[in-house]
Specification:
Blueprint: H1 3-33, H2 40-58, H3 61-73, H4 82-98, H5 102-125, H6 128-147, H7 157-163, H8 169-192, H9 207-221, E1 230-232, E2 238-242, E3 245-250, H10 259-275, H11 292-306, H12 310-323, H13 325-328, H14 333-340, H15 357-373, H16 381-393, H17 419-438, H18 442-447, H19 452-461, H20 471-479, H21 486-499
Helix pairs in contact: 1-2, 1-3, 2-5, 3-4, 5-6, 8-15, 8-21, 9-10, 10-11, 11-17, 12-14, 15-16, 15-17, 17-21
Bound molecules: zinc ion.
The site of zinc ion has 4 residues, from helix 10 and helix 11.
């Protein structure tokens, strides 16, 4: 076989893997959006079957041989070109999955699917002890998985690498160590200032109008409805079944009239990335977003840098007033802007404001690395959780349901995932600074409801590269610096000094 033929073979196989991934995502979307409760058992079997088929294909000797041959036939696998990168990432994927024995993968799927059910009950009943043995087993399995990837600098490295290729625990730790004291200090200054009023959003807004508003803004942002749709889900998420079908979900809260809009902007930010991937990489090893942190840099960018900005509301506030006259009719834009940016140390990560969000993540990162190092035991987690919440945020959960049991990730075995949320926040401001330096008119454009330059910049500098670069390399290439906390702190200081008149 010629090199050309081998490359075509490889692409046929990676296309099949991408399509199986789309099928997997479709099963999951349906489960979260449409499936009746009675479908659980059948769906678990179907999901496990697809996962097994994917494993077998992703580790097939045929694929391994093709990749080996191609790697030796191309001039330099480390070259900075599309082809070398495509082979390199295919090789990395193959070697990664091949190190995990099939029975270990299946065991992990079984253990986490059972643990998820137990966690749902435990959170409902405020019963950490019933969940603890499951979590202990998950931590053991994650430590075993990490062992398969020796040598490493830190046992957390291989887990982090699954979500953030190339990122090291030491790098995350250095970034967080720089960020933590500054965020805590800012929070203390805000706590001394007079609190702003946000009672106008703590009301029940008309749901039809909320939906209309969300769809209008998503359209304005550039979401392509010919390649997407929006449905309801209890925990909003974005999913992609391929380049032509990228779906978002939202929810409507009784106690927060603006929550759905921000959530929709967040998910639309994710979706714009998936819709903007360069078609030339479709079905190759490079045809997916480069990392979760870069993905989150897109969602947080639209939700916060745009959605919680003064400029955006110059355009959107009159529309909101028309849609919700009884809640917003008598409010000034200034009152509204300050209200939606109210800072309040809270117990729940997903409800956290921009000034406190990263502190929630640091707490989880410290616990996860402690578990992987074997320095912490699961039975001690509630106590450690509560004491750190007090130290970082000044609040103590009244029970474990609102504390250590609040997030779904650990029951799903996703240890290593949390840091990507905070890194995404940091990167989102790095994009913003560079974008505005390139196009100083952007704030004025946003104020008039024109997001075309913003989206074009993201398409050009982030989306189209898909997995052509690892996350740190992409951030470096575009902004001239690796992932760093300085732009984010500059942004927070400036924003909240104004809002809280510090
Ligand atoms: Zn997100």
């Amino acid at each position: 076989m010629s090199t050309e033929e081998k490359l075509n073979q490889l692409r046929r196989l990676t296309a099949e893997l991408a399509n199986l991934g789309g099928i997997q995502a479709l099963l999951d979307w349906d489960q979260q959006v449409n499936m009746p409760r009675g479908g659980m058992e059948d769906r678990s079997e179907q999901a496990a079957l697809v996962a097994g088929i994917m494993y077998d294909r992703a580790t097939s000797p045929q694929l391994g041989t093709l990749i080996e041959d191609l790697a030796s036939e191309i001039p330099d696998i480390n070259a900075d070109d599309d082809l070398a990168r495509e082979i390199k990432v295919a090789k990395r994927d193959f070697e990664h999955i091949s190190r995990i024995p099939r029975e270990k993968l299946i065991e992990f799927v079984m253990v986490t699917s059972r643990a998820h059910e137990v966690w749902v009950q435990a959170r409902e009943n405020n019963d950490f002890p019933s969940f603890a043995p499951h979590l202990t087993r998950i931590v053991e399995l994650r430590r075993e998985q990490a062992e398969l990837f020796k040598p490493f600098d830190h046992p957390y490295d291989p887990l982090l690498d699954e979500y953030e290729p190339g990122m090291k625990t030491a790098e995350v730790k250095a970034i967080f160590d720089a960020l933590r004291p500054q965020q805590v200090a800012l929070l203390q200054r805000i706590a001394q200032a007079e609190q702003v009023d946000n009672s106008f959003i703590r009301e029940k807004y008309d749901i039809d109008s909320q939906e209309k508003f969300g769809r209008f803004i998503a359209t304005r942002m550039g979401y392509d409805w010919n390649r997407g749709r929006m449905d309801l889900a209890p925990h909003p998420f974005t999913t992609s079944f391929g380049y032509g079908d990228v779906r978002i979900t939202t929810r409507y809260m009784e106690t927060d009239g603006m929550s759905s809009l921000f959530s929709t902007m967040h998910e639309t930010g994710h979706a714009l990335y998936d819709q903007g991937l360069n078609p030339k990489y479709r079905h190759t090893s490079l045809g997916r977003p480069t990392s979760l942190a870069v993905h989150e840099s897109q969602s947080r960018f639209w939700e916060n840098l745009i959605g919680r900005s003064q400029a955006f509301w110059q355009f959107a506030f009159p529309i909101a007033q028309m849609l919700f006259p009884e809640h917003l009719g008598n409010l000034s834009i200034e009152q509204f802007y300050r209200g939606i940016n109210r800072v309040e140390p809270s117990l729940i990560r997903i409800e956290a404001d921009e000034a406190t969000y990263n502190l929630h993540i640091m707490l989880r990162f410290e616990i996860e690395t402690g578990l992987m190092e074997g320095k912490l035991e699961t039975k001690d987690l509630p106590e450690i959780w509560n004491s750190r919440m007090q130290a970082y945020l000044g609040v103590t959960p009244p029970n474990d349901s609102r504390g250590v049991l609040q997030d779904v990730h650990w029951s799903g075995g996703m240890i290593g995932y949390f840091p990507t949320y905070a890194l995404g926040n940091l990167i989102s401001v790095q994009w913003w600074e560079k974008m505005v330096a390139d196009h100083p008119n952007i704030p004025d454009e946003i104020a008039s409801g024109d997001f075309s330059t913003v989206l074009a910049w993201m398409r050009e500098n982030v989306h189209r590269y898909a997995s052509r670069y690892d996350p740190q390399d992409l951030v470096q290439k575009i902004t001239g610096s690796r992932i760093t906390s300085e732009p984010y702190m500059r942004y927070l200081e400036q924003k909240y000094s104004q809002i809280y008149r510090l």
